[in-house]
Amino acid sequence: AQTVTQSQPEMSVQEAETVTLSCTYDTSESDYYLFWYKQPPSRQMILVIRQEAYKQQNATENRFSVNFQKAAKSFSLKISDSQLGDAAMYFCAYNAGGTSYGKLTFGQGTILTVHP
Amino acid sequence: DGGITQSPKYLFRKEGQNVTLSCEQNLNHDAMYWYRQDPGQGLRLIYYSQIVNDFQKGDIAEGYSVSREKKESFPLTVTSAQKNPTAFYLCASTSLRKSTEAFFGQGTRLTVV
Hints:
The structure holds 2 protein chains of 2 kinds. Chain A is mostly beta strands.
């Protein structure tokens, strides 16, 4: 079974600074998808960024980028120029693809605090 | 606007009662999912359905039941057999095309009183 581990229960960053959230996963699949979701206090799950395992290039979405290390099974999220609105719980998630499209395995989450 | 609607937002249940959580989507998505979130934990899959009139158990299906009579609807019943039902429940949907993302509802907070 696939597992996703987020080893940082809490992180904090100063506004306008950069922070990196860590995620590792375990799978025997060669093709899969990885996601970072944000859950603000409203508890609405919001997709931040997505990475397809067959793509070597790291995904980027504005201030959010990932460092995808397939061999090491590592998938970290970098938030640049942090804003107060970035404060939330962040979840790393894995999807095996194939007949399992949409089934997500989540990490435990990292609470991100942004200080003004 | 297309999206997923969960109702109610808050639900209180007496011990021994069954309750049903509603999830409706108008995204024309094929697949729908129910996840449970406990404090300080990630989401765990309860049940999912990829086609009408068919559904599969997830990782923590005991004490729950679902139905999928319409493509748009995937209600979750929390039965009296669920020993610790107090949690936050999230419904999600996806198309079954490659590299799709999951869209989530706003959740239902269930509390046993």
